[in-house]
Amino acid sequence: MVGLAGSPKVITGVFISLAGIYWAFKDFNFIDFKRSI
Questions:
Q1: Between the CA of residue 24 and those of 3, 18, 20, 21, what are the distances in Å?
Q2: What does the UniProt keyword field contain (predicted)?
Q3: What's the chain look like in SS3?
Q4: Cα–Cα distance for residue pair 37/24, rounded to 1 Å
Q5: Integer Cα distance of 7 and 11 in angstroms
Q6: pLDDT computed for residue 18 by the predictor
Q7: Left if phi > 0, otherwise alpha if psi is -120 to 50, otherwise beta: which for 7?
Q8: How far is residue 5's CA from residue 13's CA, in Å, rounded to a whole number?
């Protein structure tokens, strides 16, 4: 587990997936917010 966590590819993959999830939630909330106005 520690060896995997130290791998640059794994760190990059996790970072990209977290950024993607954050972006999706941000867009979803923004659309919801726009609809409620």
A1: 30, 10, 6, 5
A2: Membrane, Transmembrane, Transmembrane helix
A3: CHHHHCCHHHHHHHHHHHHHHHHHHHHHHHHHHHHHC
A4: 20
A5: 6
A6: 92
A7: beta
A8: 11
Q: What's the pLDDT tens digit per position in 1-37?
A: 566 667 889 889 999 999 988 888 877 777 777 777 6
Structure tokens at 32: 């919801």
Q: Residue 20: which of 28, 9, 8, 30 has the closest Cα?
A: 28
For tokens 């954050």, the residue is 22
